[in-house]
Amino acid sequence: MRLLLASSSTGGHIYPALAIAAEVRARDPDAEILFVSASWEIGKDIVGRYGYAQTFIDAQGFDRRNPFNNISTLRSLVRSSRQIKKIFRDFRPDIVMGTGGHVAGPVIRAARKQGIQAVIQEQNVLPGLANRLAERYADRVFVAFPEAAEHFKEKDKIVVSGNPVRAEFFALDREEARADLGIPEGNTAVFIFGGSQGASRINEAAIDVIKKLGGGKGYTILFATGPQLYDEVLAALVIPGADPGSMDSVHVMDYADPISRYYSAADLIVSRAGALTVSEVAAAGRASILIPSPNVVGNHQLYNAKALEDLGAALILDESEIADGGLAEKIEELAGDPGKLRAMGEAAKRGAKPDAVKVIVDELFGTNFA
What φ, ψ does residue 74 adopt, rounded to 5°? Predict the structure, then answer.
């Protein structure tokens, strides 16, 4: 199989593609796999760390708030169209798969024009614009949540698969991860992060959590700041007599890699509610506090978070509720009831879709879509 995976390089789009690539390679060691991403994206180096071939196009997303900024976007679409044709000519894919974002749309459209089978995978409860526009060019539309199917027009194309989550999230070793991170027995471990690039509001609340709960109070705080915000966070973490990056009870890092180790060690996860994060929390079977981003189209992170809240697996907080000590208070409240934490984690696990990758790759290796 020659599989081309088109994805924007945010974690929520690229990690599902990586999970699919790993399953394809496991079934067919001779499979040729190529990732296509945008040349300017911050997360473009993620793929390289997993050893897959990657190439880049100049596609940009449309600015719906300021249409005048889209002149450069239109120019980039013309350039990327030429680039995609060359990629197809050189790589000769059997199947093209898009996992969302502005890169996926033009690649899926070009595949249809050239008669190449194309599929898309939608991670969110509320589908993104790129995938809704790409639906007409796709042979299959894989959705993570049944509710997402309501937002697509061609129901015969829909396959409810769940989100493809990397295998390591289903085989976590809590004791090994805690020993590796030096977490004392009996401590409540809290993993806080704001997505692959970080989130300022969550970081501000996490700093408060560290100052209130760090330093030998029965907690271990695992905190991923995001690469661009790391120095800013360290400057704000002034804890008398301690280096916040090396305290036994506080682990501050710019990027959690491998992130599965931190999920494994944690009793409670505090994060945004990106679709992949929600699916990883479920796969890991961990209790969570989810803080949906207010800066996403259609407030789709709230819908993602509710999928876990409805199971009794998560507590949803607005950004206003985590400020001024609010996050630390909620963490203490949940940590004070270990039975509730365990029950939330068990509820999350019941919401996991361990066969998602298998369902998708079965289709890729299956019969002709036409």
Answer: -65, -40
Cα–Cα distance measured from residue 246 to residue 243, given in angstroms and rounded to the nearest whole number: 6
Q: Which long-range contacts (CB under 8 A, 24 or more apart) does 324-329 make?
A: 324/208, 325/208, 325/212, 326/205, 327/205, 327/206, 327/208, 327/209, 327/270, 327/289, 328/205, 328/208, 328/209, 328/212, 328/213
Question: Domain containing 75 — which CATH number?
Answer: 3.40.50.2000
pLDDT at 101 over 50: yes
211/88: higher pLDDT: 88
Please indicate, yes or no, whether residues 226 and 336 belong to a single structural domain of this protein. Answer: yes
Domain coverage including residue 60? 2-165+354-364
| pTM (2 d.p.) | 0.87
Distance CA 142, CA 295 (A): 25
SS3 of 97, please?
strand
Cis amide linkage into residue 67, ω under 30° from 0 = no
Query: What φ, ψ does residue 246 adopt, rounded to 5°?
Result: -130, 0
Q: Same domain, yes or no, for 337 and 193?
A: yes
Residue 37 CA to residue 102 CA, distance in Å, equals 9
Which pLDDT score, from 0 to 100, does residue 80 have?
78
DSSP code per residue over 173-224: -HHHHHHHHTPPTTPEEEEEE-STT--HHHHHHHHHHHHHHTTTSSEEEEEE
Question: Is 370 a domain residue?
Answer: no
Distance in angstroms (rounded) separating the CA atoms of residues 211 and 208: 5
Does 322 share its domain with 219? yes
Q: For residue 253, which of 232, 271, 277, 227 has the smallest C-alpha distance?
A: 227
The three-point CA angle 110-58-228 to 5° equals 130
Q: What is the mean pLDDT of residues 336-348?
A: 97
Instruction: Dump pLDDT digits (tens) for 15-62.
Output: 999 999 999 999 999 999 999 988 766 566 788 888 999 999 986 655
SS3 state at 51: coil
User: Which tokens belong to 238?
Assistant: 């002034």
Indicate if 236 and 318 belong to the same structural domain: yes
| Nearest partner of 287 among 340, 345, 360, 244, judged by Cα | 345
End-to-end CA distance of the chain: 17
Residue 78 tokens, joined: 């013309």
